[in-house]
Amino acid sequence: MSQNPYEKIDDNISGQTQSTQPGVEEKMDPAPIYDDPNFKGADKLKGKTALITGGDSGIGRAVAVAYAKEGANVAIAYLADQEDEDADKTIELIEKYGGKAKKYQTDISSDQNCKQLIRQVIEDFGKLNILVNNAGKQFPQKSIEDITEEQLKETFETNFFGLFFMSKAAITHMKKGDCIVNTSSITAYNGSPGLLDYSATKGAITSFTRSLALNLSDKGIRVNAVAPGPIWTPLIPATFDAKTVDEHGADTPMKRRGQPAENAPAYVFLASQDSSYMTGQTIHVDGGDFVGS
């Protein structure tokens, strides 16, 4: 029996780190798997326009590729100049599969920036049907005493405030049948002793997903989430030391880290009519980590 292609890449990862958040995919070796050749689009998102924050790399890139395969036009937002090359690659991939694509560099921790981003997407694409709130940062600390006020603010401003501001700005332009998909985390459910503030933001995202789903149900706008486990994205080498990177994912029931492409089908499902009777829910893509805890 041939080995799972997602397992092969895990065998070849050697310790590596990056010095700045949220990390650069172009620097990763081996590169994450973001495009599964076995994933065949079926026009499930044909004619839709999606905006993905943190869409230049990692899970965001994989979702952008899958959405393009399903017929969507895709806008991506990203933070810093260092991510330009990643963003250009993602735009190239979206266009390869027939989607209209555009990139926007902005800091979503600002309410004003989120409003401007949504206005630009509406101007450039004419509509917005799917918002994927995916951008995030994490800064590990051994003790709560080591988490500064500045770190706490930065983590919440990017991970939760940005998601809140994006959702608030987007729903003005959304109609019945449109949807929001948030990126939560296994840490919202299992906790993480070294990622206290990050885990708290993901818990807030999970609660917000449920509450916003109820709030928007009368408008026919669905709100759901995906909670990834340990996934090979730029955030990992940009967060941890080489030893932790080497061991990343080894303690899951499936004994390996996941790949961005393994998350993408869940985001497609939640954005399509296949999940028309789901709102306020979270799909766990974590190698059994939540079940096995």
UniProtKB/TrEMBL annotation:
Recorded superkingdom: Bacteria
Pfam families recorded: adh_short_C2 (PF13561)
Disordered as annotated region, ranges: 1-40
Keywords noted in UniProt: Oxidoreductase
SMART domains per record: PKS_KR
InterPro entries registered for this protein in UniProt: KR_dom (IPR057326), NAD(P)-bd_dom_sf (IPR036291), Sc_DH/Rdtase_CS (IPR020904), SDR_fam (IPR002347)
Residue spans of biased composition, Polar residues class: 13-22
Keyword Plastid: no
Domain Ketoreductase: 48-235
Family the UniProt entry places it in: Belongs to the short-chain dehydrogenases/reductases (SDR) family.
UniProt-recorded name of the protein: NAD(P)-dependent oxidoreductase
Organism: Sporosarcina ureae
